[in-house]
Inverse folding.
C-alpha cells in the first residue's frame, strides 16, 4: 500500500513538473519572432491592396489593420521583387544562363514558403497578412499581379478606385510629375488593375470606390470584411466611426481634409483649357467606371470649350513658356496650389516647403534655411526658380536668399509678372528668353529689377 502511495505521489509530481515545463515552452513560443501561436489557422495566401497613387490605399490599409488579427505591410513591395526575379531578370542571360527554366521552376516552388515565413516573422500574432502597394498595377511592373496569383492562387485582391480628376489634381499638387504624366498614371493603373480583376473569380477580386468608402466608412468596412470572409472586429467599427467624426491626415495630404475627403478641387484649381485637356485624357475611363456618361463628357467638353474661349489665359502661364517644358521648377507660391497649375504642365514644387518634401508653404523656412533648402532641391532636380509678383516681397525680406540668388544664378528676362532664376547656370533659358522677348539674360551680381505693384497693392 505504501509503495502504491509513493508511486502515485511520484506520478503526480512528475505531472506537475511536465505542466510547468510545457508552460515555459509555450511562453518561449509566444515570445519567438519566428513562430506564431493563436487559436485559429494562419492564412496561406496574402491580401493585396492596390490602386493608383492618391486613390486612398493608405486609408484602406489603416482601416483593415485595425482588426487585431490582420497585419498588412505598407509597401514592402516584396512581390515586385519576387516578380522581377521570376519574370524580368531571367530574360537577361547576364543574370541566369544555363538551366534557366529549371531554376525559375525551383523559385516558383520555393517562394511561397519563403514569403510566408517572412510575414510570420514580421507579424507573429496575425492570422491574415499581405501588402499594400499602389504600384502593383504600374506598367513598369507589367504582369506583377499575375505573378502574385501564380505564387498564391487563393490571394484576395482589393482594388480601390478614385475619380481620375481628383487623383491627377492631387499628384500634380504633390509635384511628383507633370500634367500629362499625372493623368496617364491614373489611366494606366486603372486599366491594368481592372483588366486583371476581370479575369479573377468574384471571391478573389474586390473593387471599391474611394468615394463610397469615405461616404459611409462603416458600410464600406463591412463590405470589405465580408469579401475577406473575416468577422469584423469592434476595433474596426470604432475606427470608422471616429474617422467619420474627424478625419486623420494620412500620406502627406495636399489639401485641407476638413473641407471633406470626398470633395473635388479639380474645377477650382485647373483653368478651363486644362480641364478640357484633362477630360480628353480621362474621359474614356471615367465613363467605363461610371463616374460619367458619354453624353455628360461631351456636354462638359462643349461647356469648357466655350468657357476657355472667353477666359483669358493666366499671364504667368505665358511667361513660364520661357522655361523648358521638361524642366522642374520651384515656385515661391505662398502655398497656393493654383500657381503650380500655372506652370503649364511642368513639374512644379512649392518653395519653400516643409522638411520631408511635403509641398505645403513653410513660412519658418527663411534666410539661410531657405538657401540650404534651395540648394538641396536643386541637387534633386530643380532647374528654375520662379518668383511671381506676389512672392517678390517675401524674397526682398529674405536678404540671405536674395543675395545668394543674385550672386550665384542668372535671371531670365521676362516682364513685370515674375522673376525667373536659371538654377542650372546653363544657356537654355537665355536662348529661349532672347528668342521670345529679345532681351539679354542678366548675369549673377546684377541687382533685382523692381516689379510693378500688383493691382491689389496700388
Amino acid at each position: 500500500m505504501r509503495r502504491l502511495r509513493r508511486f502515485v505521489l511520484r506520478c503526480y509530481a512528475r505531472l506537475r513538473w511536465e505542466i510547468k515545463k510545457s508552460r515555459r515552452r509555450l511562453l518561449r513560443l509566444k515570445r519567438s519572432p519566428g513562430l506564431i501561436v493563436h487559436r485559429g489557422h494562419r492564412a496561406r495566401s496574402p491580401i493585396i491592396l492596390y490602386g493608383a497613387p492618391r486613390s486612398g490605399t493608405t486609408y484602406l490599409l489603416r482601416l483593415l489593420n485595425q482588426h487585431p488579427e490582420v497585419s498588412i505591410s505598407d509597401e514592402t513591395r516584396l512581390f515586385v521583387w519576387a516578380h522581377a526575379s521570376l519574370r524580368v531578370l531571367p530574360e537577361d542571360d547576364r543574370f541566369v544562363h544555363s538551366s534557366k527554366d529549371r531554376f525559375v521552376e525551383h523559385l516558383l516552388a520555393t517562394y511561397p514558403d519563403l514569403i510566408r515565413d517572412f510575414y510570420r516573422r514580421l507579424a507573429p500574432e496575425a492570422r491574415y497578412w499581405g501588402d499594400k502597394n499602389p504600384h502593383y498595377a504600374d506598367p513598369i511592373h507589367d504582369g506583377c499581379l499575375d505573378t502574385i496569383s501564380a505564387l498564391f492562387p487563393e490571394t484576395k485582391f482589393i482594388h480601390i478606385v478614385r475619380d481620375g480628376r481628383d487623383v491627377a489634381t492631387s499628384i500634380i499638387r504633390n509635384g511628383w510629375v507633370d500634367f500629362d504624366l499625372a493623368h496617364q498614371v491614373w489611366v494606366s493603373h486603372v486599366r491594368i488593375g481592372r483588366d486583371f480583376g476581370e479575369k479573377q473569380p468574384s471571391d478573389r477580386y474586390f473593387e471599391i470606390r474611394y468615394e463610397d468608402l469615405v461616404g459611409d466608412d462603416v458600410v464600406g468596412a463591412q463590405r470589405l470584411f465580408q469579401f475577406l470572409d473575416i468577422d469584423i472586429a469592434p476595433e474596426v467599427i470604432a475606427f470608422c466611426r471616429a474617422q467619420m467624426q474627424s478625419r486623420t491626415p494620412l500620406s502627406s495630404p495636399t489639401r485641407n481634409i476638413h473641407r471633406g475627403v470626398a470633395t473635388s478641387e479639380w474645377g477650382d484649381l485647373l483653368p478651363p483649357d486644362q480641364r478640357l485637356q484633362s477630360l480628353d485624357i480621362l474621359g474614356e475611363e471615367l465613363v467605363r467606371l461610371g463616374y460619367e456618361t458619354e453624353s455628360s463628357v461631351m456636354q462638359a467638353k462643349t461647356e469648357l470649350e466655350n468657357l476657355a474661349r472667353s477666359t483669358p489665359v493666366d499671364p504667368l502661364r505665358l511667361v513660364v513658356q520661357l522655361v523648358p517644358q521638361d524642366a522642374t521648377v520651384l515656385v515661391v507660391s505662398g502655398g497656393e496650389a493654383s500657381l503650380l497649375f500655372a506652370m503649364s504642365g511642368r513639374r512644379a514644387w512649392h518653395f519653400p516647403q516643409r522638411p520631408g518634401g511635403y509641398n505645403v508653404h513653410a513660412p519658418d523656412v527663411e534666410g539661410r534655411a531657405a538657401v540650404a533648402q534651395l540648394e538641396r532641391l536643386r541637387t534633386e532636380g530643380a532647374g528654375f526658380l520662379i518668383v511671381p509678383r506676389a512672392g517678390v516681397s517675401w524674397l526682398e525680406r529674405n536678404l540671405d536668399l536674395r543675395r545668394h540668388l543674385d550672386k550665384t544664378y542668372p535671371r531670365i528676362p521676362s516682364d513685370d509678372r515674375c522673376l525667373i532664376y536659371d538654377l542650372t547656370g546653363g544657356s537654355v533659358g537665355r536662348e529661349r528668353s532672347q528668342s521670345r522677348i529679345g532681351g539679354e539674360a542678366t548675369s549673377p551680381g546684377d541687382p533685382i529689377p523692381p516689379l510693378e505693384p500688383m493691382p491689389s497693392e496700388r
